[in-house]
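From the methods appendix. Each design record in this collection lists the tokenized structure first, followed by the designed amino acid sequence. Records were kept in a plain field format so they could be parsed without special tools. The example shown here is representative of the layout used throughout.

RECORD:
FOLD TOKENS (365 positions):
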């Protein structure tokens, strides 16, 4: 008789009090019943632990729940790894602390997985704006739903998803992973949360030998999320850009390791776009001001990274609307980079205002 569950659901919580009841209720109401829920309270300063206990008792699912209370905050990715270590399910799926599942989500994921012994199943998802009761469908951009896909076609066709091409979500959630596959990947989680989902999948995906995209949306994620609202200042952006440069070099090494050269240009395009987006969020001052000069000095430093030498492969392509920005990067011209981003900042004031207002309406911060 099988003693372990078919699916381990790993949910991590940090300041998630308002959202816990909906998450746990969505799991307790699943049509597929052979699961365990692993709740990782990542040393939340709030009442997460108390609310989790209250909900699992009220819904009478305490016997299906493992509750882990981290004594120190490990961060999103390391907290998930704690859950993976205690998981007993044949398959793993993940859910963030402010999200929820459709009632038949686990059933839709596990049926093809068991029928075809799949390593990975990917479903669509909904982005939710709660205060407006509005949802947006995010559907995988594939033409082969509900079809068993196998290696090496999987790797050749879809690994590029983690190098700047948006084919399907790069998140932990919205997927069903064979547990042995995840353990085989031996993923070492980063200390911070920057691109932690993508890094996990970069490590796991090369080991996938069979998978399926299902044309079904069963995961609901809140716009903004409980980790949003981070301050846009030069020190936050410095940390972000520095980390993204580390990840750029890591992914470039993976391209070399797997001889996956078709991803390189897309990786460079993403590098350029990240620089522009990040600096544009800061470039609110005239370049002649003290604050502007400080950011320009920072840009001079960041452009010294060898990664930006790769941007030269984009020169003269003619397909990009920001050729002047590409040329400025290649010249290591920090002033021109800043001026271009300053103009971009001024053009985008309406979208920034709308986003800020939406976040206040939804989350109150």
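DESIGN:
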């Amino acid at each position: 008789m099988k003693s372990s569950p078919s699916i381990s659901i790993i949910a991590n919580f940090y300041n998630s009090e308002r959202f816990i009841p909906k998450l746990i209720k969505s799991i307790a109401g699943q049509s597929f019943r052979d699961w365990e829920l692993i709740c990782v309270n990542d040393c939340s300063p709030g009442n997460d632990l108390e609310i989790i206990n209250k909900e699992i008792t009220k819904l009478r699912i305490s016997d299906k729940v493992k509750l882990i209370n981290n004594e120190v905050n490990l961060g999103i990715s390391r907290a998930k790894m704690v859950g993976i270590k205690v998981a007993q399910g044949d398959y793993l799926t993940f859910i963030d602390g402010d999200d929820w599942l459709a009632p038949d989500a686990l059933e839709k994921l596990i049926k093809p997985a068991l029928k075809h012994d799949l390593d990975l199943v990917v479903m669509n998802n909904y982005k939710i704006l709660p205060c407006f009761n509005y949802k947006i469908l995010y559907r995988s951009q594939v033409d082969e739903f509900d079809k068993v896909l196998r290696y090496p076609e999987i790797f050749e066709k879809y690994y590029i998803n983690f190098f700047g091409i948006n084919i399907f979500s790069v998140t932990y959630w919205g997927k069903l992973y064979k547990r042995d596959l995840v353990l085989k990947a031996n993923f070492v989680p980063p200390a911070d949360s920057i691109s932690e989902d993508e890094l996990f999948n970069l490590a796991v995906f090369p080991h996938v030998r069979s998978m399926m995209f299902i044309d079904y949306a069963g995961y609901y994620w809140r716009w903004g999320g409980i980790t949003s609202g981070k301050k846009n200042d030069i020190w936050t952006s410095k940390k972000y850009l520095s980390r993204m440069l580390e990840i750029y070099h890591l992914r470039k090494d993976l391209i070399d390791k797997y001889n996956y050269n078709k991803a390189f240009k897309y990786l460079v395009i993403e590098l350029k776009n990240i620089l522009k987006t990040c600096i544009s969020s800061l470039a609110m001052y005239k370049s002649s001001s003290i604050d502007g000069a400080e950011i320009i000095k920072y840009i001079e430093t960041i452009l010294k990274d060898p990664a930006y030498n790769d941007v030269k492969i984009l020169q003269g392509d003619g397909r990009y609307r920001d050729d002047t920005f590409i040329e400025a990067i290649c010249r290591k011209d920090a002033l021109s980079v800043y001026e271009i981003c300053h103009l971009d900042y001024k053009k985008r004031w309406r979208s920034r205002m709308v986003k800020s207002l939406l976040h206040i309406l939804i989350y109150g911060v």
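APPENDIX NOTE: The longest strand covers residues 210-222.
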